[in-house]
């Protein structure tokens, strides 16, 4: 009787283990289609660009020649991670109300946010501003012209993970604007065919306008896509000649540009497909999909734990039964 009590739980445990192992291998084979698509290695996101400010200090009425130039950090195919890239240069500060001294200033900033918030995709912003204040009654010659310039080109990559050789609907909602003098351009092409535009190039240049682009794209799961973002801003304030009088002359220029594209899987496909971006883009990570062999080993491990647990329980029952 003790032998039977020990044998029956073992038989039941063996059947359960075989079922779990078979399920594990079946799941691994079922996941193979998605794993094939998820094995794509995406290029890193990169940023190229920089900027400068140029000014004359005008100390003691002198004119700097050549003008003083300060450069922003120069990015040349800089690999972008999950942290934002922020660069800025500034000279002077905006004059307070009632200022009577001649003064100038310039600022230039560049911001690239791989993911400003957890659900947002990259944003690229550039701004440039200059100002010049000349008070004729101050007795000083005005300083020369000031200028600021920023430009940047950001590139990242994406693909649709899921069963291979299929076409998936992906929604795009992008916006861009330019204030003052600048440019904001968005483009998307297959990585292996830069001449084929997935979306028409969206661009604004040297104007005070904005654009919004929305569409449903048909993207294939076996294709890597390149998203290119180009942006720039320029500002300059001219010099003033000498003169007399008590009036102050103030001239300034502010320019800025902004880009923000966003991609989402159409709800009809969201249960089987997902968007994968270059590392550091979007949520800041690429979700890992276990390989088929990993699934199988996990299931075998769970089955082994179940077998050990059942064996210990059966042994305990056999000891308690009367001989």
Taken as a percent bin, the fraction of beta residues is 35-45%
Oligomer: single chain
By DSSP, the count of extended strands is: 14
- Helical segment tally? 3
* Secondary-structure element order, N to C: HHEEEEEEEEEEEEEEH
Helix proportion: 10-25%
- Give the N-to-C terminal Cα separation: 8 Å
Low-confidence stretches: 1-8, 20-37, 241-246, 283-295, 313-321
Radius of gyration: 32 Å
Approximate shape: elongated
Give the overall average pLDDT: 74
* Largest beta-sheet characterization: 8 strands, antiparallel
Question: SS-based structural class?
Answer: alpha+beta
Describe the structure.
The chain is an alpha+beta fold and 323 residues long. The protein contains three helices and 14 strands. Strands 1, 2, 3, 7, 9, 10, 12 and 14 form an eight-stranded antiparallel beta sheet that branches. The chain has a six-stranded antiparallel beta sheet with strand order 4-5-6-13-8-11, with no helix packed on it. Strand 9 and strand 10 form a beta hairpin. The protein is elongated. The protein starts with a helix and ends with a helix.
Keywords:
single chain, 323 residues, alpha+beta, eight-stranded antiparallel β-sheet, six-stranded antiparallel β-sheet, 3 helices, 20% helix, 44% strand, disordered N terminus
Element layout with pairings:
Blueprint: H1 2-30, H2 32-38, E1 46-55, E2 68-71, E3 75-79, E4 85-91, E5 103-113, E6 123-135, E7 146-161, E8 167-179, E9 181-190, E10 199-205, E11 209-220, E12 225-237, E13 248-265, E14 274-277, H3 292-320
Antiparallel strand pairs: 1-2, 1-3, 1-7, 4-5, 5-6, 6-13, 7-12, 7-14, 8-11, 8-13, 9-10, 9-12
Helix pairs in contact: 1-3
């Amino acid at each position: 009787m003790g032998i039977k009590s020990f044998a029956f739980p073992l038989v039941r445990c063996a059947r359960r283990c075989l079922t779990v192992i078979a399920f594990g291998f079946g799941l691994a084979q079922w996941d193979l289609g998605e794993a094939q698509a998820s094995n794509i290695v995406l290029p890193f996101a990169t940023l190229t660009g920089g900027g400068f400010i140029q000014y004359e200090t005008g100390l003691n009425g002198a004119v700097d020649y050549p003008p003083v130039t300060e450069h922003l950090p120069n990015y040349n195919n800089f690999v972008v991670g999950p942290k934002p890239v922020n660069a800025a240069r500034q000279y002077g500060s905006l004059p307070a109300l009632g200022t009577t001294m001649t003064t100038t200033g310039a600022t230039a900033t560049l911001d690239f946010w791989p993911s400003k918030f957890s659900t947002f995709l990259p944003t690229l912003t550039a701004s440039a501003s200059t100002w010049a204040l000349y008070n004729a009654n101050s007795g000083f010659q005005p300083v020369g012209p000031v200028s600021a310039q920023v430009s940047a080109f950001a590139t990242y990559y994406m693909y649709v993970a899921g069963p291979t050789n299929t076409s998936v609907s992906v929604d795009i909602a992008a916006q861009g604007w330019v204030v003052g003098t600048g440019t904001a351009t968005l483009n998307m092409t297959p990585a292996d065919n830069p001449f084929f535009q997935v979306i028409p190039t969206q661009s604004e240049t040297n104007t005070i306008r904005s654009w919004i682009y929305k569409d449903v794209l048909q993207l294939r799961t076996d294709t890597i896509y390149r998203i290119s973002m180009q942006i720039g801003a320029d500002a300059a304030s001219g010099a003033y000649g000498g003169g007399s009088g008590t009036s102050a002359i103030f001239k300034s220029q502010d320019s800025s540009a902004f880009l923000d594209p966003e991609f989402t899987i159409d709800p009809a496909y969201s249960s089987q497909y997902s968007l994968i971006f270059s590392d550091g883009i979007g949520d800041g990570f690429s979700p890992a999909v276990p390989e088929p062999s990993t699934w199988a080993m996990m299931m075998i491990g769970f089955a082994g734990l179940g077998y050990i647990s059942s064996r210990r329980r059966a042994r305990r029952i056999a000891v308690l039964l009367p001989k």
